[in-house]
Design brief:
The structure is a single chain. The chain has 140 residues and is mostly beta strands.
Length: 140
């Protein structure tokens, strides 16, 4: 295993204040890297329109990361003898705008009920639910 960053250790411990800043696709050294935390997975593969790539395990706790440059990827994870294909909720953009966050922080957001809580939605052609954090969380 490699030496983990403080952010990775916070993800594993469940204490990261904003896991979207670490998990999902991120640009590093002009390449896109996908990071996934699936604690019980033995193997994780990023699957895209033009191919797939196994993401190396970077920590025994279930942290996987590797280069993959397809913005509409899915994940194929192996849990014991079962293989599951799923969406990576961390690949979707935030649903709260900077203005929403500003109004929320100011205490003046008059339509907050439209932004927070669980709301069914379709994002990038994938049906799911927006979580109370304003992020798309899972497929329906």
């Amino acid at each position: 295993m490699i030496v983990l960053s403080p952010a990775a250790r916070e993800i594993i411990a469940g204490r990261h204040a904003d896991p979207f800043r670490y998990l999902g696709p991120h640009t590093e050294n002009d390449a896109t890297v996908v990071r996934v935390f699936l604690p019980d997975a033995r193997r994780v593969v990023a699957v895209g329109e033009h191919g797939e790539r196994e993401l190396p395990r970077i920590d025994d706790a279930g942290l996987f990361a590797g280069p993959f440059d397809d913005p509409h990827y899915r994940l194929r994870a192996q849990f014991g003898d079962n293989e599951v294909e799923l969406e990576d909720p961390y690949r979707f953009p935030p649903l709260l705008s900077d203005y929403d966050l500003y109004l929320l922080g100011e205490g003046n957001h008059l339509r907050l009920y439209e932004k927070l809580g669980a709301h069914p939605l379709t994002c990038e052609g994938v049906a799911g639910v927006a979580s109370s954090s304003g992020r798309r969380t899972r497929s329906a």
